[in-house]
Task: inverse folding
């Protein structure tokens, strides 16, 4: 299964790099609108990944949540498979962290139990299975957090068969620009 996952990651990484800017721009807007409409009022504290350029954009979501008085936490990778949720108060105060992923520059308050977690993926399925980047960071975090989890994914990266292992957790929702699975 580990080999199957790596093969699928490589395939989806190529697919993600082929997504054109116009599609991404429209998809980002639709994902943002769906998220705000369906989930922004479901909690007071949100753990939200800081997106890279080939992932659905979370910056607008974070800005909306901050503007509307929600507590926002962002991931900080500490070591092998260990991630903290650190309070984010200003997107402009982020630095590039481990694996080239943005993270809060200040060590603010932390939480292990946000109301909602917004998580990334390499690809996802209609059955809500999610293939992550392979470190197990989000699986470990979500196991402790016991919160509503929402995976953001481009519809072009929805695949039919995602191999899973016993430790892999499925999000409660997979949100694309077209549907919420």
Result:
């Amino acid at each position: 299964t580990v080999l199957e996952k790596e093969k699928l990651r490589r395939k989806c990484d190529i697919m993600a790099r082929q997504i054109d800017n116009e599609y991404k721009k429209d998809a980002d807007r639709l994902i943002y609108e769906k998220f705000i409409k369906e989930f922004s009022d479901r909690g007071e504290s949100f753990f939200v990944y800081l997106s890279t350029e080939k992932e659905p954009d979370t910056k607008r979501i974070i800005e909306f949540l901050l503007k509307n008085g929600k507590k926002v936490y962002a991931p900080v990778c500490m070591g092998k498979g260990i991630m903290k949720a650190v309070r984010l108060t200003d997107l402009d105060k982020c630095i590039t962290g481990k694996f080239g992923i943005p993270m809060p520059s200040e060590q603010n308050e932390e939480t292990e139990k946000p109301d909602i977690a917004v998580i990334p993926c390499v690809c996802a399925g209609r059955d809500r299975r999610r293939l992550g980047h392979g470190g197990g960071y989000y699986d470990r975090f979500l196991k402790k957090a016991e919160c509503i989890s929402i995976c953001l994914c481009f519809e072009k990266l929805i695949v039919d068969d995602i191999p899973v292992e016993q430790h892999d957790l499925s999000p409660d929702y997979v949100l694309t620009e077209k549907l919420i699975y």
